[in-house]
Design a protein that fits this description.
Helix content: 25-40%
Radius of gyration: 22 Å
CATH class of the largest domain: Alpha Beta
Mean pLDDT: 94
Bound molecules: zinc ion
CATH architecture of the largest domain: 2-Layer Sandwich
Structural class: alpha/beta
Shape: globular
């Protein structure tokens, strides 16, 4: 397989079944190359022939090529701070099996987390009848190095320079690739969710901390090959609380799970409706204002076409969205005011695992170079 194979697979993923003529127009490949590439993909069983659904009305329907989503499967794993989610999906990120488990960040070694995730994946695979997996995509809680093999630093877990891809490959026997967790979630929405065909997607995720991920023209924005969009560490007050990053007054020092749990008088595991509970407290108005301030900065800097809210923000009451849509437009440049869209995550609680899946599919299938 090669990049031309990946190109055809991406066109079929995004555009559905197509005639060879349509594939030739979209790919700009020569007739000879396209014939060669589609023949190889047909032999590999990843595409199949079918009748085109739309005809010119003259004669019989023509033959089309379609993707075969069940030809292979991949695994996605979200390593969150204290929570691991695992999913096995088909080639269009359709979930076949999912599982999750909690762990204590303070009391669990990373090696034990990886071992438990690998055991859980092995169980899911067995329950599905041992499908062939192309690889594992791991969504991790921090920026990763340029070759996507190590997590560089994760403030909320205390992990740094950890070769997680090697660790997963050793425990699962499958090729592994890493991506920043919120970048993975943004990528999943762009490839398979509500961000399809959208040039700029900013994903904002609130769980233990407040993270963000940006996908521009279909590619995760990773400045320097490793950077991340650290919306949570925009400083909104120079004399604010000490942040987990060491600075004072970052957005995350005001808007994080522990602070919001205290504001609603709860301890232990955060409920899904944390922000609904917060809405009834006096902490609600300042939280809305801080989110609005920070998002206004992000919009002016990054000009996203779509902002997707996930985690606790994705489960927030409608009043959060109403507030943002009312108060953000006057704060951003005029050309952004009419195009601003803010939506809830389409994958909900599965966002992180499907994020890992999207990374694995890009890396091990739709690139066409690693099959
Ligand atoms: Zn900070």
């Amino acid at each position: 397989m090669g990049v031309h194979h990946g190109q055809i697979l991406c066109i079929l993923r995004d555009g559905g079944p197509q005639s060879r003529a349509s594939l030739a127009r979209s790919s700009k490949l020569s007739a000879t190359t396209l014939t060669h590439v589609t023949a190889q993909l047909l032999r590999a069983g990843v595409v199949a022939e079918c009748d085109v659904t739309e005809t010119t009305g003259i004669g019989r329907p023509g033959q089309a090529i379609r993707l075969v989503p069940d030809a292979f499967h991949v695994a996605g794993i979200h390593l969150g701070a204290g929570l691991v989610q695992i999913a096995i999906t088909d080639l269009k990120a359709g979930a076949k099996s999912i599982a999750s488990f909690d762990f204590s960040v303070r009391e669990t070694e990373p090696d034990d987390v990886v071992s438990r995730a690998a055991e859980t994946l092995s169980r899911l695979r067995s329950e599905l009848g041992e499908p062939r997996l192309l690889g594992v995509g791991v969504a991790v809680p921090g920026p990763v190095n340029a070759d996507q093999r190590s997590i560089l630093v994760s403030i909320n877990t205390g992990w740094s320079n950890l070769p997680l891809a090697d660790m997963f490959e050793e425990k699962t026997g499958l090729p592994a690739v890493l991506e920043h967790n919120v970048s993975s979630m943004a990528l999943a929405e762009v490839r398979y969710g509500i961000g399809r065909q959208v040039p700029g997607v900013l994903y904002v995720y609130l769980r233990t901390g407040l993270g963000a991920g940006l996908v521009v023209d279909g590619m995760p924005f990773r400045p320097g090959g490793h950077g991340a969009v650290e919306l949570g560490h925009i400083q909104i007050s120079t004399d604010g609380p000490l942040c987990s990053c060491g600075n004072h007054g970052c957005l995350e020092s005001y808007v994080n799970e522990a602070v919001l749990m205290r504001a609603v008088g709860l301890k232990g595991q955060a409920p899904d409706n944390l922000l609904k509970r917060l809405e009834a407290t006096e902490a609600w108005a300042p939280t809305l204002d801080r989110l609005t301030d920070s998002l206004a900065i992000a919009i002016n800097l990054l000009a996203p076409d779509l902002i997707i809210l996930g985690g606790h923000l994705g489960e927030a009451p409608d009043s959060l969205f109403d507030h943002l849509l009312r108060n953000l437009p006057p704060r951003v440049m005029p050309h952004m005011r009419d195009v601003l869209r803010i939506e809830r995550s389409g994958f909900g609680p599965l966002s992180g695992a499907i994020g890992g899946v999207a990374v694995a599919l890009d890396h091990f299938f739709y690139s066409g170079v690693r099959q």
